[in-house]
Amino acid sequence: MNSFSKILVTFLLLTAGVQAQNEVYTTPVETEIADTTFVRLRDYSNDFIYDMKYATEDNFLKAKVYDCAECMLRLKTVKALIAANNDFLKKGYKIKLYDCYRPLDIQKKMWKIVSNPEYVADPKKGSIHNRGGAVDISLVDITGKEVDMGTPFDFFGIQASHNFKQLSKEILSKRAYLKKVMIKNGFNSFDSEWWHYNLKSGLKDKVANQKWKCD
Ligand SMILES: [Zn+2]
After folding, report:
1. Cα–Cα distance measured from residue 180 to residue 163, given in angstroms and rounded to the nearest whole number
2. Distance, CA 99 to ligand 1 centroid (Å)?
3. CA distances, 110 to each of 48, 66, 118, 127 (Å)
4. Is 132 left (phi over 0), alpha (psi -120 to 50) or beta?
5. What is the pLDDT of residues 134-180, one digit of tens each?
6. Which domains does the chain have, with CATH numbers?
7. Quick one: pLDDT at residue 19?
8. 167 SS3 class
9. pLDDT tens digits, 45-71
């Protein structure tokens, strides 16, 4: 049962209890779920492209660390990401996702493969990915073609930095555009990785180990 269903069931049970005691009959309504609840992005929007690299071996770990691809995030991150995507859609672009929320157990698995804080966050500290507030993204254009951002996702080198300026004007302007729209919608950029964005209001949320079901 996902957390949303849990909340709904809890609410229905509570409502049933109130009705039994007070003979009050109300129409059950869905409760508003907390902004910090973990939800699946695809339950809220069909306008994203998914390329979840850690659910494949096509990543720097050369290992598939997720059983299946899923983009889970806290609800507030989903809301901010949809708002950003709507801005991109108006200009003919869409967000492509490489990674979203990363359960702590997965972080531990990654750390076991590459125990180097330059490449993987130490699970003792946890990253914003473990808090449900970080996304790794790029843009695709109207034809579905990935926008050239100068390096691939998870390229570990100076060329991936926002501060690296020896790139074509076109690439620099695309990185700047991605950054501008994300910042406008409540995210922070990360200097050394053009693809990584943290929701500002999610920086202090707890590290979590929520799992998702694979079909
Ligand atoms: Zn990231």
Report:
1. 15
2. 7
3. 26, 10, 13, 12
4. left
5. 999 999 998 999 999 999 999 999 999 999 999 999 999 999 999 99
6. 1-33 (no CATH), 35-202 (3.30.1380.10)
7. 45
8. coil
9. 999 999 999 999 999 999 999 999 999
The annotation status of 136 as a binding-site residue, yes or no, is: yes
Q: What is the whole-number distance in angstroms between the Cα of residue 196 and the centre of ligand 1?
A: 4
Q: What is the pLDDT of residues 107-138, one digit of tens each?
A: 999 999 999 998 899 999 999 999 999 999 99
Give the position of tokens 């709507």.
86
Choose, from 30, 32, 57, 193, the residue flagged as catalytic.
193
Q: Could you tell me if 189 and 128 are in contact, meaning their C-beta atoms sit under 8 angstroms apart?
A: no
**This prediction's pTM:** 0.85
Q: Ligand 1 centroid to 98 CA: how many Å?
A: 9
Residues in the chain: 215
Measured distance CA(68)–CA(164) in Å, rounded? 34
% helix, strand, coil for the chain, step of 5 = 35, 15, 50
CA–CA dist 161, 182 (Å, integer): 16
32 catalytic, yes or no? no
Ligand 1 center to 12 CA (angstroms)? 38
